[in-house]
Amino acid sequence: MLWVLPLVAAIGLLGAFLAAPYSPRIDAAVTRLAFLLLGGRGIEIDVEREQALRSAAIGVPYREYAAKTYIYTAGAGVAGAVVGVYLGAAGLFVLASPGLSFDPNATIETSNVVQLGVFLLSGALLSAVAVGATYELRWRLPSVRADGRARRIDAGLPRTVAFTYALTRGGMSFPDVLRTLSDNERVFGEGAAEVDVAVRNIDLFNVDLVTAVQDLSENTPSERFGTFTENLSSVLQSGGDVSEFLREQYERYRDEAEEQQAEILNLLATTAEVYVTVIVAGMLFLITILLIIGLTAGDTLLAMRVLTYVIVPAANVLFLAYLLDVTRPLRAAGDEHEDDREDERGKVADRGRDPDQKRSGEGITAGRAVESDGGYTRPGAAADHERLFAYRRLRSVRETLASPLASLVDRPRLLLYLTVPIAVVATVVRLPAILAGGSVDVRALDDVLIQAAIFLSGTFAVVYEYSRRRLKRLESAVPELLERLASLNEAGISVVSSFDRVRRGDIGELDAEVNRIWRDIQWGATTEEALSRFETRVRTPSVTRVVTLITNAMHASNEIGPVLRIAAEQARSDLQLRRQRRQEMFTYLVVVYVSFFVFLVVIGALEYVLIPSLPDVGSIGGGAAGGAGGVGGAGPLGGFDGGDRDAYRLVFVHTAFIQSLLSGLAAGVMGSGSVKAGMKHAAVMLSISYVLLTFAI
């Protein structure tokens, strides 16, 4: 078995390279090896590639990235050569002839020339492919990441500018505004990460404000953000009114957000038509054509199986990927954070630090709070910090067990930890009956799998929809709350007293939350602490931005009425855009459902009307008229024998089930830009298909 060791070593090398981005130890080992062998000497800097690295925010110097690229390329070449030799040997083994055999234990001396040539050719070919692909992939990765960052920056730019304008309008100095924005990367995403670069240049390298902002315009991957920062640096350099400039930019980007959404909705309209035409009607047309060909010319069962089990799922998955890419700006503008909201709480605890701390930042790093010189504050502090880190890692688990229902509403994904084991156990218990007699009852197996899929998607959809509707009702009341707080503050009432007055009125779904805020203040919490607890309880994108804005504005001044007005205007604009989007997308949902019902009706007609009405060629003339292909001579179309009839019907049923599940997911992405939202549509469509094709017809 020693001949297998080179293959194992090659696969292990490739696995180590793939795991390096996720393992600091492996990555550090590759870095040390790269500098040990290359040391950065002789590596000339490519200006374009270096700019791509900066735009992608990879955080690795050019020479280090280049040296590691050469190591990855060389390792991939060696591994590719080894795997290529084994593939060549496998090919010889499969295609062996009496004069051309393969013995894995044979030496080069005893091997024939053809074997050696095949080994060298296959190894060299695969090595060349691995080298070229690895080298190209490594240098294209920064550009791909930069493009992704650019889209996320553009999507969040209106809110980033609104936040900056509000704090400037509230009296905070512009350098402090930039610091505040960079400290809230978890709220404003890549835009805040870009600003953090300018803040570090100012605080660590003593760069002046104008130069730091100009550097942002030169290195950012976003063209829109680059234009904004370039104009901002001109205003700062000329001594103009920054607040007025930000107000103009805020209004401009708000209008552009409406135009961008209109463009995306128009694109979705075209996409929905393409989906109905190609994925639904096109596949239905192919199935019908293949059935007719099978009746008249020959057996098409294999082609129909390939269409059902390969082409239909692949086409739907590709379409879903395209939909997710098209709706990315809409999700980045709000819905994406709504879907990721349930993960944020766990990540906050897992990071072992407070949610207000930055991901790159302070506090406990890798479970250890250290001094700037690398030492601990006192003896035994290392063990204490390890215990504290473990405690915080388990905090989310303890909270989930303490209040399971509330945790499920907050994080619907937790329900899968309960429902998936139940579905697996129920399926395993029912398997013996399906496998009885030494053969598999395919229809019974279908029943088990479809019922499990309906159970999983249906239960998740109920909890997810309840959670989402509750949060949307809370968000719809945010503008009213902000406007009332702004009116009271502009009338000279302090922020604390404003909450006391607001809670006495009716602000809809936020009544209970405002009462909790006031109760926290009465029990000794500061306004900032009470608002932070409110944000933790609700944790929607709108509430998170509002709390971040209010708490930072209070640090600059107690008169935050103008800031609250801007926040209320932005929140109301977001709600209006979301309402328009929901109304427009409802049409696409109807289109998907109509196409699904048409697909189901046609499949049902083929399954229960056309095929049963065809004659059984096995009972006509002893099957002599039909032959093995299933083509009969009774009637203008012929017929099927008994086995082919059942096989075709099974393919039709499976086609309906697969299309139901994937059409539901597509409907969710069209309607809400989320696969999770598509679970309810998938459950509904799958249930309808199952009932109609199994019981009703």
Automatic annotation (TrEMBL):
Gene: pilC1
Coiled coil ranges: 243-270
Location in or out of the cell: Cell membrane
Protein's organism: Natronomonas moolapensis (strain DSM 18674 / CECT 7526 / JCM 14361 / 8.8.11)
Top-level division of the source organism's lineage: Archaea
Assigned GO CC terms: plasma membrane
Type II secretion system protein GspF domain span: 166-289, 482-605
Gene3D superfamilies referenced in this protein's UniProt entry, alphabetically: Type II secretion system (T2SS), domain F
InterPro entries membership: ArlJ-like, T2SS_GspF_dom, T2SS_GspF_sf
Residue ranges, compositional bias (Basic and acidic residues): 343-361
Region entry Disordered, spans: 333-379
Protein name per Swiss-Prot or TrEMBL: Type IV pilus biogenesis complex membrane subunit
UniProt keywords, alphabetically: Cell membrane, Coiled coil, Membrane, Transmembrane, Transmembrane helix
A Pfam family matched in the record: T2SSF
Chief localisation class: membrane
Transmembrane segments: 69-96, 116-135, 274-296, 302-324, 414-436, 448-466, 586-611, 617-638, 650-671
Membrane topology: Multi-pass membrane protein
Keyword Cell membrane: yes
